[in-house]
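MOLECULE: protein
FOLLOWS: sequence and fold
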Amino acid sequence: MHIHWFPGHMAKAQRMISAQLKLIDVVIELLDARIPISSANPIISELVGAKPKVVALNKSDLAEPARTAEWIQHFRGMGFTTVTLDAASGKGSKELVNKVEQEASEKIAKLAAKGIKGRPVRAMILGIPNVGKSSLINRLLGTATAKTGDRPGVTRGQQWLKVGKNLELLDTPGVLWPKMDDQEVAFKLAVTGAIKDDIYDMEKVILKLLGILRENYSDRLRERYKLTQDQLPEDIVELLELIGSKRGCLRSGGAVDYEKARRIILTDFRSNKLGQFTLDTPDQLEIKESDLTPTTERHF
């Protein structure tokens, strides 16, 4: 299941971000609360350097609350200002704005001391595709100004957006890194929708997902697909067939339509119909200090 993706607009976005960072007071890195490490692009950390940063765990409504609490403690323990969000409903957006303004207070005070008063805080929102940047911006603005979509790659350009009197946001396209050597990370990005469905082997991804669900969340599978205690075969292909049959994914002659069955399972997983999931935990992945640890020096 080798997944590699770095289309041309990603490289362009990276160059645009680098050019604009000198205008920015605070960076907002938007992560998927279900996969906080897998959705943390190391390129973003390299680009941002010592700029003040707020880590925002979005889609927290889809993640397991206990795991999210662990991640909050983890990131805060590393020195990051951290908030949780549900950009779709707006929950946590006001706290995010407050935290961003707090992070920029030192810079704004320095400007005021030089006679530059009343300048809004300038923030940049960064994150991988489909992590919810546009939905968050729309909530902050109270209007559908930024385009949204249920697929990665909707936002292609950059735009400054005014939020209240004290904050200006620079929206940017989602950026993936050029090469994903860790196929576990690639799997998590694929199954949560960060990677377009047409560029990876969905059969292998769904079979892997079903294996995880069978091993760790068998009760949810039984409840969602109305399986009995005995209807949970160890063979994952047989399990896919059973779910397909239960959901009426049948071709003429009674054969299971595997593609349709896979789509149903993936949609159920992404839409919370199988419950809340967190695929990353702090003790699962080795976290590189160079990628995530903030420096004590602040560059403005």
